[in-house]
Amino acid sequence: MPLSRIDAIWDVQSRWPGPGIFRGAVMSAEKIRSNRTTSLWAALAVIGLAWGSTQIFSKIIVNAGHHPIGISFVSTAFGAIVLVIILAVLRRPLPFSRPHLIFYAVCGATGTALPHALGYTALQELQVGIVSIVIAIVPLMTLVGSLFFGLERAQPTRLAGLLLGAIAVMLLVIPDTSLPDPDLAIWIALPILTSLSYTIENIYIAKAQPAGLDPMQIMCGLFIAALVMLIPVVAVTDTWMPVGRWDDVELSLVAMTFAHIGAYSGFVWLIGRAGPVFAAQVAYIVTLSGVGLGIIVFGETHSAWVWLSLVLMLAGLAMVQPRERAGA
Known about the structure:
disordered N terminus, mainly alpha
């Protein structure tokens, strides 16, 4: 039953109690509302957990000793194949006009080719939990970019959230006892650059997305563009990743690709069903699941500074999240 119909029943009940049979209908509507809310929260948890798990799969692949560029190429190629198949099944053609090609190229570079290579390199040196905390600054950096381009207005609470996010990152870098080895602090720059790359993609999509493209078409276009970019790079550097053995590494790559595509598709679906404010809360689950799965799967341990950084990052995310507009 559509939520609007449930709300209509609820509004009538609030004005006129009606006979017992009507009250029963209202109770049924309330049960549907409750079930729907539970389902949305469950979907939010599953999407966030799937997104957070991609870091675990990435770490498994990286630990096998493959080069980050080679991993980026193979994961991008597999993702492109899956997305082409999905669009074919859905019968959604991918536009290839000049504006579309430029859009795919920019998004492919900033949203896949560059951040994937940087992210895999970071995971060679850093714990999954640390990378998950730093990557969480994407919404904060996106807010900074949105303020710069006039897409958002400055608000004291959200600016305070940016400050908390900055402090959270500094807590990972400055104290000598924060990371397992103080020399690892320099590698924090890589997930920061990864976040910056994703931020550029977010801002560019907001300002330059061609009309008529749905999220699945955008993903397919940017994956194909990233693949085209990576082919000469992996050829020149001779960093091909061998495939065909179907061991734990390749199974992790397959799982990572489906988790990423499924989480992104689910996120778009959740925005349509519950709105962007509710869906934006997935950021908390992505971060927490990345940290938690790192502990469960790899036995990672963290200092008090890291836990404090996590708390401040989550608080910062809460303060920069979009709010419901009046009358919405």
